[in-house]
Design brief:
The protein is an all-alpha fold and 94 residues long. The chain is built from four helices and no strands.
Length: 94
């Protein structure tokens, strides 16, 4: 369940990052349209809210929110590294 929560938070921050013009342009070559931006943001927030459930199910109401806070920070860090450090496909700049 901890892994599920981590995957959900990583996906959430990845989606929220791709909703921005800079990251979307870097990965896909164009800025997102308004409908796509809204879809990415809503998906990101939905995944972030949904990541609370596995954390609470695995550790209970006492330690679940603490686990979730840590998983949120780890997911944000992983998404940051993927979006900013790992080059996009076809990007020859290093």
């Amino acid at each position: 369940m901890n892994i599920v929560s981590l995957l959900l938070t990583t996906a959430a921050f990845g989606l929220l990052g791709l909703a921005t013009d800079a990251h979307h342009r870097r990965r896909f070559g164009h800025c997102p349209q308004a409908a796509r931006r809204r879809l990415l943001r809503n998906g990101g927030w939905l995944a972030l809210v949904g990541s609370v459930v596995p954390a609470i199910l695995s550790r209970g109401w006492i330690f679940g929110p603490i686990l979730w806070a840590g998983v949120v920070m780890a997911g944000a860090g992983i998404a940051f590294l993927v979006l900013n450090v790992i080059p996009a496909r076809g990007d020859t700049r290093s």
